[in-house]
Amino acid sequence: MKRDVRILLLGEPKVGKTSLIMSLVGEEFPEEVPPRAEEITIPADVTPERVPTHIVDFSESEQTEEELHEEISKSNVVCLVYDVTKEDTVDKMRTKWIPLVNGGAEKGNRIPIILVGNKSDLQMGSSMEIILPLMNQFSEIETCVECSARNLKNISELFYYAQKAVLHPTAPLYDPEEKQLKPLCVRALSRIFSISDQNNDGVLSDEELNFFQKSCFGNPLAPRALEDVKTVVWKNTTDGIQENGLTLNGFLFLNMLFIQRGRHETTWTILRRFGYDDELELTDDYLYPQFRVCHDCTTEINHFGYQFLQKIFEKYDMDGDGALSPLELKNLFTVFPYTPWGPEVYNAVCTNEKGYITLHGYLSKWTLMAYLDVHRCMEHLGYLGYPIIMGQDSQTTAITVTREKKLDLEKGQTQRNVFLCKVIGPRGTGKSAFMQAFLGQNLEKQKQVAGEYSYYAINTVQVNGQEKYLILYEVDVDTEFLKTSDATCDVACLMYDNSDPKSFNYCASIFKQHYMDSRVPCILVASKSDLPEQKQKHGISPSDFCYKHRLPPPFHFTCNTLESPNATIYTKLALAAIFPHLNEAEISTASFWLRITLGATVAAVLGFTLYRILVKQK
Description:
Blueprint: E1 5-11, H1 17-26, E2 40-42, E3 53-57, H2 65-74, E4 77-83, H3 87-102, E5 113-118, H4 128-137, E6 141-146, H5 155-167, E7 174-175, E8 180-181, H6 183-196, H7 206-217, H8 223-236, E9 241-242, E10 245-246, H9 248-260, H10 264-273, H11 284-287, E11 299-301, H12 303-316, E12 323-324, H13 326-332, E13 357-358, H14 359-372, H15 374-383, H16 386-389, E14 399-401, H17 405-411, E15 418-424, H18 431-437, H19 443-448, E16 456-463, E17 466-474, E18 491-497, H20 504-515, E19 522-527, H21 542-548, E20 555-556, H22 568-578, H23 584-617
Parallel strand pairs: 1-3, 1-4, 4-5, 5-6, 15-17, 15-18, 18-19, 19-20
Antiparallel strand pairs: 2-3, 7-8, 9-10, 11-14, 12-13, 16-17
Helix pairs in contact: 8-9, 9-10, 12-14, 14-15
């Protein structure tokens, strides 16, 4: 919505433009009227729409044609004033003033016009008969107001309608020639309907309508008013009401009715609550709310975000099988202007036996997005209507910013739930298979999976009875580490081929260049352990290399198994990420004492509960 409104008054000499302005300001008809009134500004706190309003007068005798064109270009709305007692001033609207205001403008870019019939105190009847053809001819005319500067009739209403024409414009919403909503308006209202239809059954129930009404206008509809609304729709449409609920066609009809009856501010209130601007595009403020992430901090979805995302999942899981089929996922994305997830998602998260994304995989994908690109994540939450459904000011309430990693290291503990592991190794090592094995796929299943390759894989790992998300990122062997930050992660997985004698050299080189003097923990993985082990052509063996550099011994791994691959390595990677300041022996000890502490806590709670029960029984 515009921050201020600029109203320009035009018309033939002596029609009363200046008198109208002075009557508004002085609240009485002026005894002496100057040739032109100075520009006045009405403060926001005394206007109905709470925005500053500038009112500008124009006089042909006082100003040049160049100044006239400049004023027109600066104005948001033009009030064309005519004398109701002189028909020739109406003719001038058609032949001179309207072409002057909007002569070269395209249909969608024309300045809105309010026709103002002044001196109604001098005429018994109405001028509307001669004005209606004019309004039908020019679609940019918002309305016509008859008023009197002398007896102050409709003066404040005139400027209210002018203000309303700017803040709640008809042009983006409705085509008066076709008598229907414009395509962009239909698109926006269809998205709003889809968000408001919380159970995805194609109709807005009384409960959903009241939730919508409260979200947009602050109060639910009274039961009688709700029935009246549905009756109006039922009488005027063939399919607007179904199963006692409002359909999309009924919702669109209602908004068209508001506009046709001059209540387009109602539709604009709805549109703006759901994030739309005057061009019916979602605003940057709505999609990208201000959000600061300090250096060395990460971003995670919190319980508000997961609660909302689970609601959305359940809404679109129409068959209730705990997974989203491609069609269900496509339906979920109908509120987006583009498809946000590509086919690589099926190789980045867990899927069921049909290859559909499970709830776990779906939440994992959102967790990955929040970690990698929090602003894109908030944009997507905005498209889904998070602020409306959750009753929040913005999507920022769905995101938690973790504390800086250096503080975690100082304190020896972390509150983070998402950790990044970079998987590094020469080509042919089996990094891709290692990533897919993290999603529970053995080598045989991996060969059957279609879809585009993903450099990321995300899943949860149980660490001391708690679920933590671990993100695996495969580093492209052809991508060199250009700067120190390229090697940054929570844990590095250096992988070599157990059956290739030249494979270990690459891992040793990467470790010495980027990780030997860093605080990033490293774990070496010997892949393809089902194949005969070959002696590595390096100065020392991988085991001795690990011993020399105080690393855990290489972990032997294969995904060429009958069942799901062994997940122990992923737990080790997660533990190393959570306890980067400890070596493997210390991690085991820390895990043991953490389990003891958790067990003692649970025992204490149970003991206290039993004590209270016994006391009550006594």
